[in-house]
């Protein structure tokens, strides 16, 4: 099997799958901070992230993996250090999506709070996914991208009728909170870093960087629409409406008659979220494979180590997620733009010099 | 001393004074043909003793000469008598094999309302003739190979030269030549050797019993494999989409074909997922039911002593047993069995309070739904069970995780470099014209791109 990501698959990822993680806890978090201006904060973050994605995809032009790019530009030692740092970043970045996933599952999939043991199969799946080369996921994007888009479309159709868009006015009253809101939600924006892990697997075509930025902007627009709908429905109680995407459609009139048909679309999105929430871990495993070899045994070891680490982290902070989330989003928020925005931008000139140093 | 009681010899003297011996296997040799084609012409033979001269006298169109004793023995066992005589340089083998065949009939797995009704039978020669009758071109290549140390089964690899991908043809031939097994009784044995992941649950080799479908697949650029003794032909590379397409789709208007394909897909998905969702909804997420339906279900399950997952599992198990028994039983007993099964399952079990009515309805629908795509039933029935177990233990989230696992398996499986899930993953928009949505014949101008045929265009 060829482990390549076709341009279309990358675009599906950026437009349809990358936005999914931003629909779970982030809307409530933003609403708490910037109220009706939540979409402005998100717009700011999305604009910066679009730049990061553009830079990261531009790096794919040479067809080199991140490790290879660093090795040819800065030497082997720097390549190891760079990749290991990024692996640690992915472990750090994976915490919120995975915990979000857990909380979402508890809330959306069960009427009563289930035992933590129910998440063991999730880690088994994660263990299996991390063994597979990242290039395999291109084909997953082909299926899940359209599926997530269709599911999102129907959820929006169900929700939009109950939305009071006037709740978003007046615009800009929260002033500088728009900026702090954006800074405090950086943990949900590291798609540029995910693209870095895909380097060397992307079949680069002319203009792909622009197309990627556009696709990401389309996904971003969907997030903004969702935030607007979310705030338009819940307004003052929006800050306590976690797992937002599962709640906006429940006021659709036909649900009384047909039951929670919106769950069909919520589950479709949850299926796509399984993959999108695991992408940081899968990316970390891929970077380890690039750096230290990719035999089957080694792949299994990387997967065991990464999943073991994140499982340990999750169980240690099992009851302290709000504190851990606060630490990540309020104190360590700068880590995300460092790896996600600055790293791809810093690598761009390296790409230019790399030809001379081979 | 002859090796077996059914291996016989027949000696006769020609007018020229040469004693000929015909060595043949009694049950598989057409003795009348042996007399007409071999004995009668040679009774008056007065010529040379060379195989060439003797052969020229025989009236057989299928004549070969051999020196190797092993090959001669093989020919005798296949039904072709060996002709021996004093002073010969080579032995002659005459093609007078006795052919036992049943009539060409409509295959039970490919019944159509419109379209050809012929089906393959167990004889490879008749099967290849049915293919050649549909593809009257020199480009149709039929390469005969043998596999099975003891069965020495004939295998015909069929493809259109210049249309099929040569790498796939070579790959298939190489895999067949590499088979080291004593007996190949059926093509299903062979399909195990022709797929890249033999232990996977997912089907990787296409099957058909219809020569028209077989020929159409060859024309698309696939390679077909016929096995002597089996009415089921194999086609490679296989795409998941193939089983959602029925032969009839090409003989009805495209809109009708599209609707039927969507129906098949939905029926298959519902059949696999409905029992699992029903159990998960009861156990973990009652909100999935509309209120009125919930009240009805609650009324019918309130006295059921079993848990929803165990109840569904038992009903499914009973259905599988019933299904298995009804296939194997003689037809007249099968009718009685159906009545007993329907009564036991449909009436008595519900009245006795073992099972609830909704469970029976869901399993019945699931059973029918799976047969909307009969070629995938071996896979879908197992997936249904797998999903049910996931739902029973983890609820709807279990279904999502099981689906994720299944999806990953589906998209990463490929055979001979062709992804199983094409044209959906990888997405090939041009190939989608014959996907779930069926375009008109005039739109299908190119062969499926995923098959990498050297001759891409099939219509101008």
* Coarse structural class of chain A: mainly alpha
**In what order do the strands lie side by side in the largest sheet of chain B?**
1-2-4-5-3
Shape of chain B: elongated
Report the span from N to C terminus of chain A. 29 Å
Q: What percentage of the residues of chain A does DSSP assign to strands (E)?
A: under 5%
Could you please describe the fold and organization of this structure?
The complex is a heterodimer of chains A (358) and B (460). Chain A is mainly α and 358 residues long. Chain A contains 15 helices and no strands. Chain A has helices at residues 7-17, 26-34, 38-59, 66-74, 76-108, 120-131, 137-160, 177-183, 191-198, 208-234, 254-258, 262-292, 296-316, 321-331, 335-357. In chain A, helix 3 (38-59) packs parallel to helix 15 (335-357). The two termini of chain A are 29 Å apart. Chain B has 460 residues and is an alpha+beta fold. Chain B folds into 3 domains: 7-94, no CATH class; 100-238 and 441-460, no CATH class; 264-412, no CATH class. Chain B has helices at residues 31-43, 51-57, 69-78, 124-134, 166-177, 187-194, 211-220, 254-283, 291-301, 308-328, 331-351, 357-370, 377-394, 396-412; strands spanning 7-13, 19-25, 63-66, 82-85, 91-94, 140-147, 153-160, 206-208, 223-227, 233-236, 414-415, 418-419. In chain B, helix 8 (254-283) packs parallel to helix 13 and helix 13 packs antiparallel against helix 14. The chains are: A mainly alpha (358), B alpha+beta (460). The interface between A and B is medium-sized, with 34 and 33 residues.
Kindly summarize this structure in a few lines.
The complex is a heterodimer of chains A (358) and B (460). Chain A is mainly alpha-helical.
Helices and strands, with pairings:
The complex is a heterodimer of chains A (358) and B (460).
Chain A: H1 7-17, H2 26-34, H3 38-59, H4 66-74, H5 76-108, H6 120-131, H7 137-160, H8 177-183, H9 191-198, H10 208-234, H11 254-258, H12 262-292, H13 296-316, H14 321-331, H15 335-357
Helix pairs in contact in A: 1-7, 1-10, 2-3, 2-8, 3-8, 3-9, 3-10, 3-15, 4-5, 4-15, 5-12, 5-13, 6-12, 6-13, 7-12, 9-15, 12-13
Chain B: E1 7-13, E2 19-25, H1 31-43, H2 51-57, E3 63-66, H3 69-78, E4 82-85, E5 91-94, H4 124-134, E6 140-147, E7 153-160, H5 166-177, H6 187-194, E8 206-208, H7 211-220, E9 223-227, E10 233-236, H8 254-283, H9 291-301, H10 308-328, H11 331-351, H12 357-370, H13 377-394, H14 396-412, E11 414-415, E12 418-419
Antiparallel strand pairs in B: 1-2, 2-4, 3-5, 4-5, 6-7, 7-9, 8-10, 9-10, 11-12
């Amino acid at each position: 099997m060829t482990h390549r990501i076709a341009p279309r698959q990358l675009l599906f990822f950026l437009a349809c799958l990358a936005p999914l993680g931003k629909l779970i806890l982030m809307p409530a978090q933003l609403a708490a901070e910037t109220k009706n201006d939540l979409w402005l904060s998100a717009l700011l973050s999305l604009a910066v992230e679009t730049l990061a994605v553009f830079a990261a995809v531009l790096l794919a032009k040479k067809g080199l993996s991140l490790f290879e790019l660093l090795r040819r530009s800065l030497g082997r030692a720097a390549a190891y250090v760079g990749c290991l740092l990024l692996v640690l970043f992915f472990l750090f970045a994976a915490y919120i999506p995975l915990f979000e996933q857990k909380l979402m599952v508890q809330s959306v999939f069960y009427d009563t709070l289930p035992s933590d043991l129910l998440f063991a199969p999730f880690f088994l799946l994660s263990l299996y996914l991390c063994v597979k080369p990242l290039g395999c996921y291109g084909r997953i994007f082909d299926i899940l991208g359209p599926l997530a888009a269709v599911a999102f479309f129907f959820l929006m159709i169900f929700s939009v009728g109950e939305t009071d868009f006037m709740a978003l006015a007046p615009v800009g009253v929260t002033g500088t909170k728009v900026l702090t809101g954006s800074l405090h939600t950086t943990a949900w924006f590291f798609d540029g870093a995910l693209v870095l892990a895909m380097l060397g697997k992307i079949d680069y075509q002319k203009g792909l960087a622009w197309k990627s930025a556009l696709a990401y902007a389309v996904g971003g627009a969907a997030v903004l629409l969702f935030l607007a709908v979310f705030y338009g429905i819940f307004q003052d109680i929006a800050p306590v409406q976690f797992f937002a995407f599962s709640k906006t459609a429940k006021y659709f009139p036909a649900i009384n008659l047909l039951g929670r048909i919106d769950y069909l679309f919520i589950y479709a999105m949850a299926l796509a979220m399984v993959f999108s929430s695991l992408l940081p871990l899968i990316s970390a495993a891929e970077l380890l494979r690039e750096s230290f070899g990719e035999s089957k045994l080694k792949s299994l070891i990387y997967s065991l180590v990464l999943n073991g680490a994140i499982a340990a982290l999750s169980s240690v902070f099992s009851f302290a997620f709000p504190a851990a989330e606060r630490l990540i989003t309020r104190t360590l928020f700068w880590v995300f733009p460092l790896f996600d925005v600055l790293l791809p931008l810093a690598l761009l000139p390296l790409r230019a010099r790399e030809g001379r140093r081979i | 001393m002859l090796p077996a009681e059914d291996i016989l010899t027949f000696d006769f003297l020609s007018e020229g004074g040469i004693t000929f011996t015909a060595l043949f296997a009694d049950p598989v040799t057409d003795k009348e043909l042996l007399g007409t084609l071999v004995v009668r012409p040679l009774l008056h033979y007065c010529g040379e003793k060379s195989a060439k001269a003797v052969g020229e006298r025989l009236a057989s169109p299928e004549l070969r000469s051999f020196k190797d004793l092993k090959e001669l023995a093989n020919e005798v066992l296949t039904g072709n008598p060996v002709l021996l005589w004093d002073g010969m340089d080579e032995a002659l083998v005459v093609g007078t094999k006795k052919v036992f065949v049943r009539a060409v009939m409509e295959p039970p797995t490919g019944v159509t309302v419109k379209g050809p009704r012929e089906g393959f039978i167990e004889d490879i020669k008749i099967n290849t003739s049915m293919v050649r009758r549909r593809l009257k071109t020199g480009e149709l290549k039929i390469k005969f190979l043998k596999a099975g140390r003891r069965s020495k089964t004939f295998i015909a690899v069929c493809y259109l030269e210049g249309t099929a991908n040569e790498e796939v043809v070579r790959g298939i031939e190489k895999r067949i030549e590499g088979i080291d097994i004593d007996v190949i009784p059926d093509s299903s044995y062979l399909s195990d050797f022709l797929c890249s992941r033999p232990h996977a649950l997912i089907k990787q080799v296409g099957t058909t019993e219809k020569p028209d479908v077989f020929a159409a697949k060859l024309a698309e650029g696939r390679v077909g494999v016929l096995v002597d003794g089996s009415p089921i032909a194999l086609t490679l590379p296989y795409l998941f989409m193939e089983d959602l397409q029925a032969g009839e789709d090409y003989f009805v208007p495209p809109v009708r074909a599209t609707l039927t394909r969507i129906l098949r897909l939905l029926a298959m998905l519902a059949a696999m997922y409905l029992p699992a969702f029903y159990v998960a909804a009861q156990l973990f997420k009652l909100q999935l039911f509309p209120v009125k339906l919930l009240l009805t279900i609650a009324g019918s399950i309130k006295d059921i002593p079993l848990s929803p997952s165990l109840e569904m599992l038992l009903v499914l198990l009973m259905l599988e047993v019933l299904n298995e028994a009804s296939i194997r039983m003689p037809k007249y007993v099968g009718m009685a069995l159906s009545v007993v099964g329907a009564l036991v399952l449909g009436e008595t079990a519900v009245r006795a309070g073992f099972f609830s009515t909704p469970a029976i309805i869901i399993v019945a629908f699931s059973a029918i739904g799976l047969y909307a795509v009969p070629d995938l039933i071996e896979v879908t029935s197992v997936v249904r069970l797998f999903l049910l177990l996931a739902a029973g233990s983890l609820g709807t989230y279990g279904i999502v995780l099981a689906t994720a696992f299944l999806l990953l398996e589906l998209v990463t499986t490929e055979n001979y470099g062709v992804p199983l899930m094409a044209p959906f993953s990888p997405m090939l928009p041009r190939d989608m014209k014959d996907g779930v949505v069926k375009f008109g014949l005039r739109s299908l101008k190119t062969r499926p791109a995923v098959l990498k045929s050297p001759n891409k265009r099939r219509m101008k």
